[in-house]
Amino acid sequence: MEIKEALMVPFEATKKVIRVTKALFAPKATEVWWDKGVKRELHYRGKHIIKAELCIGCSMCARACPVNCIEMVPTGVKKPRAVPKVRGNECIFCGLCEDACPTKPEKAIKLTDNYSMIVEPGTWDNLYQFVFEPEGLEEAIEKAKKMEEMIEKKKREALKKKQLEDKKGEEK
Amino acid sequence: MGSSIATAGYTFVVEETKEVVGEDLGLLQEKLLQLNWGVQHPASGPMRLKVWVDGDEVVKVDPDIGYVLRLLEKLVEYRTWINAIVNVERACFMDDFGTMTGYSIAAEKIAGVEVPKKADYVRTILCEGGRIVSHLIGLGSFVGVMGVHTPMQWALIAREKFLDAFETFSGQRIATSSIVPGGVRYEPTGKFIEKMVVAVDYLEKEFIPRYEEVFVDNPTLKIRSVGVGKVSKEKAIEIGLAGPALRASGVASDIRKDYPYAAYGELDFKVITKEEGDSYARYLVIWEELKESAKIIRQAIEGLPEGDYRTKFPIKVPQGEAYVNVEWARGCFGFHLVSEGGTGPYRLKMRAPSFANLWAMPEIMKNVKLADVPVIFASLYMCHGDIDR
Amino acid sequence: MEAWLKALFFPGFLFLLVVFLMIFYFERKILADVHLRTGPYYVGKWGILQTTADVFKLLQKEFIIQRRANKLLFSLIPFVAFLLVVALIAFIPFSENLWVVSTSFDLLIILALVTGMPPVFFYAGWASKSKYSFIGGLRVVNQMISGEIPLWLSALSVAVFFGTLNNLEIVKESSFLSFLVLLPAFLIFITSTLIVTDRPPFDIPEAEQEVVYGFLTEFGGFNYAILVLSKLVELFALYCVAVILFLGGFKGPVLPGIVWFFIKIAFLYLFTFVVRASTPRIRMDQLLRFCWKVLTPLALLNLAFVILIKMFLF
Does A98 touch chain B (CB under 8 A)? Predict the structure, then answer.
């Protein structure tokens, strides 16, 4: 470095110091949000919501999940045969399960804008039980059972009719 | 087991461990002092540099990596074609769009899928957004190793606007996983474009002037970094530098220009090079690429075509392999993808630019002062997640 | 007020603790302003109790001594450093009758005590028996010795100009003319103050990114708090000296003397914080070159200049 440049260094440095002081009077960028809460964007990928009455039990979401955190819980009825259950502490919130869900027009598994997920205390036992359960599962099961009963009734009636017809046919 | 390794021709050198007992550590007796610049150190990140110093002079540097190894390449083999992106993007979170784009292009090449033009443009916008986000952190951390944290804070404010735009697009701020084989996952809505324009406006009108008048051409910064860690053009090619570090040595290597992918072929931009090849030149290359990326985003938003943003990608992909290079924020990132006709990749090899820069570093750090170690380390612009994968 | 009451309360220990907390708070707040952040916010009104909370957290911490460390020296050093710097404050007149001691060798004693600091910090580094601490200790000695010579020379030029070493007399005799004549000495004094107390951009001994925290690396909890306190008090004392020597001490219109004193100190501190926000740290060899080739000759020239002025004008 030349001597001339070296002599200019303190002056240049002082200039920069004065310029940085400008920032003291600029508006602050911090948003104090802790007390207010923040509204997230429309399709923020947060906590799951699983609607059991829409689910058809195809287990596409479980297959699409990259970390295998979706478990298909058997319901004991035929339709849906099983519903998804998401283990919250393993989930990476990629939203691929939502993409894979085939139900139309509304998806049975969806990621909502609920981003505050606090588990306290954060021990392994607590985290292990931190699961997103399907909503309205019992109602859906009851509904499905009723449907099954109705279908069975209809089937029985149809069978009886058939048998009666058969008998009639035999009698003839 | 040991003998089989020896017969295979490998030799392992076990470091001598000397337990120091008693009153004196022997600091004054040793001529060369080995410093463990790393793992638990304010500026090292999750890696260790063994630095041997003689007084204030650095004699030798030996990097020791592997602290954030996540086996990303192996994990991809257990994924389907679509959801492998969550592993690929985790190579480095600073710029995750570049890696996802590279993987997607490789997968599309094997499957023979043509991507709609709109998806190409959206990919370009996202890639440049990711590059800006990464470069902002790079600028901040370069000046940060000299004890000034103002640039980092200013950069984070500008970065926040871009993250807002990414959130509007994909629903997450950092782990977006938004680019898949066959296009992009979400429709680029008007709100996303609006937010992106706001972010670029903030960058160009507020951040760049404010930053330029203090931290570019700063005399103390120049004293520290001009002529430090100098690499000539021939040497840079020989030791295999990548990215901004390579361009700072005067080699105009940019995959975006040389082998255009996505929509880069249709956009107008220039490759930034510097002749000096020292730390300050690397810093300036990052600084000027930032401005160039903002221009690219504006062009891509103007030229955004109508149409589909995603095509159907087959579940099973025929046999084949592809090698794709993309210009990632930190250099040329290579993807060697092999398919055996299954529902997922058979093998993926990622060629990481940070890894190349890391092993060039011992060459550069010869006959420097101890205080130059963090400066050179930060100027090479490496990402620890990328080194280990 | 009696002298021992003064030593305990007003310009004494309690006052120093409050000053330490306030300076720490303002440093964080002003740096945050330059960074366009908010800074401390939640603890107390405008986050004013944040630093107090931090210090109380430090006091609660476990007392850790490294296995290989020299235990006696390691636990003794922080208190020695604290006593050395607290003694500085006794000689500073905050206003016309607010001082603990006033002798005819005030300036000399203050400078001598400041010169006593490098060995203490070196021993702090050496007693830790850790590599980074040791390097930090070596650096601190290097830097302080090369910074103290311009400090002495620029302070001596004031003594030559006023013909006295008593702080009170210096303040009484000072005028606008003396400020103009001593302006170069003032600039040299402030620069070397930054070097001696290793503030940025000369914070080489505790450069975080190079040697972790220098000689402070192994200290924790109460010991750490006291060492940092003593470093801050050293800076405070040297700034007080700068105000007394060059800026006219407690002199000023309308407002009482003590207020003027603190306004001047606050101005100097603001300068320090803004420098910290804009100037990167320089290297050890560059600092040594700067001290011995630029600052010391300039200080010598300045001394000659003051002597000449004293010879012909007064």
Answer: no
